[in-house]
Fold this sequence. Notes:
By secondary structure, the protein is mainly α. The chain is built from 21 helices and no strands. Helix 8 runs parallel beside helix 18. It is found in: Cell inner membrane.
Amino acid sequence: MFLVQLLVVLACILIGARIGGVGLGLMGGVGLAILSFVFGLQPTSPPIDVMLMIVAVVSAAACMQAAGGLDYLVQVAEKILRKNPKRITFMAPAVTYVFTMFAGTGHVAYSVLPVIAEVSRRTGVRPERPLSMAVIASQVGIVASPIAAATVAMLGFLSGFEGVTLATILGITIPSTVIGLGLAALVTNKLGKELKDDPEFQKRMQDPAFRAKMEEESGDLVKELKPGAKKSVAIFLLAAVSVVVMGAFPSLRPVFESGARMGMAHTIEIIMLCAGAAMVAFCGINVADVTRGDVFIAGMRAVIAIFGIAWLGDTFFGAHDAMLKSGIGEMVSMYPWAFAIALFVLSVMVNSQGATTGTLMPLGVALGLPAGALIAMFPAVNGYFFVPNYGPIIASIDFDSTGTTKIGKYVFNHSFMLPGLMSIIFSVIAGFVISGIVM
C-alpha cells in the first residue's frame, strides 16, 4: 500500500505542477481525499501558522508595491547598473538578490532584466552572463529573505529546535548564498564567446534594421514615483528588521499571565499587518491596488500550494513515520547531503520553494536531521531553473536581442543550467561550513 499511496502523492504533485497557479494546492486536496477516503489515512493538521504568517507578510509586501515602493527600488537598481557597466555580471545578480530579499518573490526580477540586457550589450559584455546570473540570484534570494513564503515556512518547521530563530536561519543562508552566487558569477563571467565574437550576434548585425535598433538609446524604466514610494520602503524595511530583532532577542516579546511568551508566528503576523496598515495610512495607497499586484498574487499562490501540498505530504509521511525513519533515516544521517538532492528534485517538480519546504522539511525534522544541516541545505529548494519554463527565464531570453541567452537544442543545455547548478552546489557547501561554525 505504501508504494500505491506514494504514487498518488507524486501524481497529484506532477498534475498540480502541470496545471500551474493554484493547481498545485488544489491537487493536494485531491490527494488528501484519496488518502483519507480510499486508504483510510487520518489527515494531520494543516500548517495554519505557516500559512497565516505568509498571508501577513505578503499583505505588507503588496502594500509596498501598491505604494510604488518596488518602482523606487527599480529606479535605484537602474542607477547602480548603469554606473557599473563593466561589472554587470556581478552587479546584476546582486541587484536581483536584494530585490528578492525585500519583496519575498523572485518575480521582481522582471523589472530590471531590460536594463541588464541593454547595459551589457552596450558595453560589449555577453548578455547571457549577467542575465542568467540575475535570474538565478532572484530565485536563490528567496532563502535569504526574511519575508519569503519558504523562509517563513522554514522558521515554522524549525521552531521545535532550541535556539533556532529567524536570525539563525538568515545568519547561515545569507552568507552561504552570497558566497555561492559570487563563485558562480566568477565562473559564469568566462562562459561563452565574447559578444563581438559570437556568430549569432554577428549574423544579426548584418541586418541594418537590427543594427540601428542596437544603437538606439532607451529611456529610464521608471519616469515618476508615487508620493509614498520611499516611505513605504522605509516602513517595510523597519518591519523586516523588527521581525529579525524580535526573533534574535526573545526577551523583547511580551510574556502573558500564563507565563508563556508570545511566539514568533504571532509576532510576525502582528508586525507585518501593522506595517501594511501604516502604509495604507501614510503612503496614499489605493487599497484596491494591493490585491492586483504581482506580489500579492504570487504570495497567495504560495499559501494555497502550502495548504494543499504540504498538508498532503505531512499526512502521507505521518502515516508511514516509523517505516520511513527506519528505512532512510540511517542513510540520511550518514549522508545528510542526500536530503539536499531530494529537495532539489521536488522543487523541479513543483516549481515552488514554499511548497517544497512545506512538503519535505517536516520529513527532515522527523528523520532527526540537525537544524544546522537543514538550514545549510535550504538553498536546494531553488530548482526552478532546471526546466526552462520559469517566467523570468523566458523573459530574459526575450529581452536579450543579441541571441546569446537561449534554450539549447536539447532543452536542458540552456543558458541557466550551469549558473544555477553552480550557485546551488556552492551555496549548500558554504552552508554546511558556516552552520558547523555558528551552531
